[in-house]
Amino acid sequence: MNLMPFGDPDDDKLREECGVFGIFKRSEAAALVTLGLHALQHRGQEAAGIVSFDGSQFHVERHAGLIGDTFTKQSVLERLPGDVAIGHTRYATTGGGGLRNVQPFFAELSSGGFAVAHNGNITNALTVQRELQRRGSIFSSTSDTETILHLVATSGARHFRDKLIDALSRLEGAFSLVGMSSKKLVGVRDPLGIRPLVLGDLDGASILASETCALDIIGATFVRDLEPGEMVIITDEGIESIFPFQSRRPRFCVFEYVYFARPDSNIEGRNVYEIRKKIGAELARENHLDADIVVPVPDSGVPAAIGYAQESGLPFELGIIRNHYVGRTFIQPGDAIRHMGVKLKHNANRGMIENKRVVLVDDSIVRGTTSQKIVQMVRDAGAAEVHMRIASPPTKASCFYGVDTPEKAKLLASRMSVEEMADFIRVDSLAFLSIDGLYRATGEPGRNALQPQFCDACFTGDYPTALTDQDGADNVRPLSLLGGAG
Amino acid sequence: MNLMPFGDPDDDKLREECGVFGIFKRSEAAALVTLGLHALQHRGQEAAGIVSFDGSQFHVERHAGLIGDTFTKQSVLERLPGDVAIGHTRYATTGGGGLRNVQPFFAELSSGGFAVAHNGNITNALTVQRELQRRGSIFSSTSDTETILHLVATSGARHFRDKLIDALSRLEGAFSLVGMSSKKLVGVRDPLGIRPLVLGDLDGASILASETCALDIIGATFVRDLEPGEMVIITDEGIESIFPFQSRRPRFCVFEYVYFARPDSNIEGRNVYEIRKKIGAELARENHLDADIVVPVPDSGVPAAIGYAQESGLPFELGIIRNHYVGRTFIQPGDAIRHMGVKLKHNANRGMIENKRVVLVDDSIVRGTTSQKIVQMVRDAGAAEVHMRIASPPTKASCFYGVDTPEKAKLLASRMSVEEMADFIRVDSLAFLSIDGLYRATGEPGRNALQPQFCDACFTGDYPTALTDQDGADNVRPLSLLGGAG
Amino acid sequence: MNLMPFGDPDDDKLREECGVFGIFKRSEAAALVTLGLHALQHRGQEAAGIVSFDGSQFHVERHAGLIGDTFTKQSVLERLPGDVAIGHTRYATTGGGGLRNVQPFFAELSSGGFAVAHNGNITNALTVQRELQRRGSIFSSTSDTETILHLVATSGARHFRDKLIDALSRLEGAFSLVGMSSKKLVGVRDPLGIRPLVLGDLDGASILASETCALDIIGATFVRDLEPGEMVIITDEGIESIFPFQSRRPRFCVFEYVYFARPDSNIEGRNVYEIRKKIGAELARENHLDADIVVPVPDSGVPAAIGYAQESGLPFELGIIRNHYVGRTFIQPGDAIRHMGVKLKHNANRGMIENKRVVLVDDSIVRGTTSQKIVQMVRDAGAAEVHMRIASPPTKASCFYGVDTPEKAKLLASRMSVEEMADFIRVDSLAFLSIDGLYRATGEPGRNALQPQFCDACFTGDYPTALTDQDGADNVRPLSLLGGAG
Amino acid sequence: MNLMPFGDPDDDKLREECGVFGIFKRSEAAALVTLGLHALQHRGQEAAGIVSFDGSQFHVERHAGLIGDTFTKQSVLERLPGDVAIGHTRYATTGGGGLRNVQPFFAELSSGGFAVAHNGNITNALTVQRELQRRGSIFSSTSDTETILHLVATSGARHFRDKLIDALSRLEGAFSLVGMSSKKLVGVRDPLGIRPLVLGDLDGASILASETCALDIIGATFVRDLEPGEMVIITDEGIESIFPFQSRRPRFCVFEYVYFARPDSNIEGRNVYEIRKKIGAELARENHLDADIVVPVPDSGVPAAIGYAQESGLPFELGIIRNHYVGRTFIQPGDAIRHMGVKLKHNANRGMIENKRVVLVDDSIVRGTTSQKIVQMVRDAGAAEVHMRIASPPTKASCFYGVDTPEKAKLLASRMSVEEMADFIRVDSLAFLSIDGLYRATGEPGRNALQPQFCDACFTGDYPTALTDQDGADNVRPLSLLGGAG
Question: Which EC number(s) are documented for this chain (chains A, B, C, D) (predicted)?
Answer without folding.
Answer: 2.4.2.14
